[in-house]
Amino acid sequence: xxxxxxxxxxxxxxxxxxxxxxxxxxxxxxxxxxxxxxxxxxxxxxxxxxxxxxxxxxxxxxxxxxxxxxxxxxxxxxxxxxxxxxxxxxxxxxxxxxxxxxxxxxxxxxxxxxxxxxxxxxxxxxxxxxxxxxxxxxxxxxxxxxxxxxxxxxxxxxxxxxxxxxxxxxxxxxxxxxxxxxxxxxxxxxxxxxxxxxxxxxxxxxxxxxxxxxxxxxxxxxxxxxxxxxxxxxxxxxxxxxxxxxxxxxxxxxxxxxxxxx
Length: 262
Known about the structure:
By secondary structure, the chain is of the alpha+beta class. The two termini are 26 Å apart.
């Protein structure tokens, strides 16, 4: 199966767009697609051929077109267009920073001094976001956030999920799950927390922020009917969730963050 290859391409595309300072929505879309494809237990080629790929939430026609192109040609034009780095033999963050210090990058189409400055700024932000912190460093902020949200909204059903709930030694971001049929006050309170330095996204049921230590915090608000399934899904590791979905499929069932279905 080429699932991992394709997932890696979408993941690298997201990284490149983030470094280039593209809109968070677009970056997040490609990163989400990468996770979806990586988590598939079925062969992505079979899903594309049957058309079932379009039934997967978060995968659109543009994504499918890129997957089809890669399956047929071994290349993805969208990735190559974004990744002008191959023209300058940029294969790592170190070589990218070296290239940015030179003049050859200015010879690329559409590349000027201002664009280079934006990329340099993107590199700094990307590097600050790429680090992991110890559980002992992150846990107090996560606990404080949950307590502040409970106090601000009066909602008790708020839990820490993700790698913190699994007690991993190092943490990449903070995941918080809340139960409410009226998510708007929660989203508002979350984005207005004192430690928030940047609001990355704020939708109807999910928000992402950057806090003072550079860490990302994500809040998801779900209705009571899916709380248990969502807490399991957003707590489990990727490998754990893939295994569970495989077990469900072997019994003719479908398992996701919304529950277990026939």
